[in-house]
């Protein structure tokens, strides 16, 4: 039996979402093939609850001891959104221990988690991106330089983060200062992007059986001004149309861009690419290297539309990770 550590939680505003993702992965994992353990990570507290008893993880070798028996893990299913599971920190730890994991490696995770740096790399491959400014929490007010460089409205968001935590839409100059404060409360780096009018589309990509597969393009239609944290996770505030109501050629173009970026960025596991589609151009927004796996998340719906069960997706991700490990 293959021992699988499902890591969830983390140290960001996405902690609760990550817990939900981890629980869904645990619920749908094939017990005939895998022996799963849900491990909750929060700061220095790494634990696994077994028969209502909380057992601490030995960080020296990422193992747990039940009674007198030490359990080690063959593979890690990474369900941590945000730090330390999506920005490369855990990846480096597992690399040193030689434990394979279902998400992208340290370098790819660190690069893609930094929205500004990732956009620069994506733009180098000829993909359109919104005009933006990258600012730092260094004591000086960047508002004036932002307004000189960009045209309102703009989006202000933490440069390293997800689920729209700390994000604001700024329509007037007076709103910029409070939006920056809100974003800086989440991250010492902030990215400010010009608003692009269009439809929000997203595409999931993974490698399975050694081949890169793109899943059906999904359209996100928020019932709020934009797709913020509440719209993402509160029932009824957004519609997710899968497959999106776009032409076959538009869908193919979105999937081809996503596949290109998956390969060029050296992604692993299932990854979700987000865009604004103007009707002519796909503007890259960001890449989610550890996308949500909860009931409210988009990837499970894409999976069903592709013709797989959620259990099959989990099995494919683990199998591909173990196969990659054999090649190294």
Keywords:
alpha+beta; D-amino Acid Aminotransferase, Chain A, domain 1; single chain; 5-stranded mixed β-sheet; globular; Dna Ligase, domain 1; Rossmann fold; 328 residues
Structural notes for this entry:
It is a single chain. The protein has helices at 15-28, 89-97, 106-113, 115-124, 143-149, 176-184, 229-233, 248-264, 298-306, 310-327; strands at 2-9, 34-42, 45-50, 53-56, 63-66, 69-72, 75-78, 128-129, 132-136, 154-158, 168-170, 189-194, 199-208, 211-214, 218-222, 238-241, 271-277, 282-288. It has 328 residues and is of the alpha+beta class. The protein folds into 3 domains: 2-102, 3-Layer(aba) Sandwich (Rossmann fold), CATH 3.40.50; 109-128 and 197-327, 2-Layer Sandwich (D-amino Acid Aminotransferase, Chain A, domain 1), CATH 3.30.470; 131-194, ATP-grasp fold, A domain (Dna Ligase, domain 1, 2-Layer Sandwich). The strands form 4 sheets. Strands 8, 13, 14, 15, 16, 17 and 18 form a 7-stranded mixed sheet that branches. Strands 4-3-2-1-7 form a 5-stranded mixed sheet, covered by helices on one side. A 4-stranded antiparallel sheet has the order 9-12-10-11, covered by helices on one side. Strand 3 (45-50) and strand 4 form a beta hairpin. The longest helix is centred in the last third of the chain and has 18 residues, at 310-327. It is globular. Residues 227-233 have low confidence and may be disordered.
């Amino acid at each position: 039996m293959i021992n699988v550590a499902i890591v969830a939680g983390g140290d960001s505003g996405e902690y609760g979402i990550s817990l939900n993702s981890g629980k869904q992965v645990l619920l749908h994992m094939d017990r005939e093939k895998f022996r799963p353990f849900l491990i909750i990570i929060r700061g220095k507290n790494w634990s696994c609850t077994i028969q209502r008893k909380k057992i601490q993880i030995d960080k020296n070798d990422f193992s747990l001891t039940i009674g007198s028996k030490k359990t080690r893990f063959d593979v890690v299913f990474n369900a941590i959104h945000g730090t330390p599971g999506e920005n490369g920190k855990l990846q480096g730890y597992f690399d040193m221990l030689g434990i394979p994991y279902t998400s992208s490696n340290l370098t790819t995770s660190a690069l893609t988690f930094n929205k500004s740096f990732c956009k620069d790399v994506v733009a180098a491959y000829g993909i359109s991106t919104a005009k933006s400014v990258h600012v730092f929490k260094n004591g000086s007010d960047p508002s004036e330089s932002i307004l000189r460089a960009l045209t309102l409205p703009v989006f202000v968001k933490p440069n390293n983060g997800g689920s729209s935590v700390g994000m604001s839409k700024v329509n007037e100059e007076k709103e910029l200062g409070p939006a920056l404060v809100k974003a800086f409360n989440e991250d010492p780096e902030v990215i400010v992007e010009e608003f692009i009018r269009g439809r929000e589309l997203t595409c999931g990509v993974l490698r399975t059986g050694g081949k890169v597969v793109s899943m059906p393009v999904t359209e996100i239609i928020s019932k709020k001004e934009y797709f913020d944290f509440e719209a993402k996770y509160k029932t009824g505030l957004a519609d997710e149309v899968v497959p999106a109501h776009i032409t076959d050629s538009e869908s193919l173009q979105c999937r081809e861009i996503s596949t290109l970026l998956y390969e060029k960025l050296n992604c692993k596991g299932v990854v979700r690419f987000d865009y604004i589609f103007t009707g002519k151009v796909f503007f890259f927004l960001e890449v989610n290297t550890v996308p949500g796996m909860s009931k409210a998340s988009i990837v499970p719906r894409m999976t069903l539309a592709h013709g797989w069960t959620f259990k099959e997706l989990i099995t494919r991700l683990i199998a591909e990770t173990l196969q990659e490990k054999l090649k190294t």
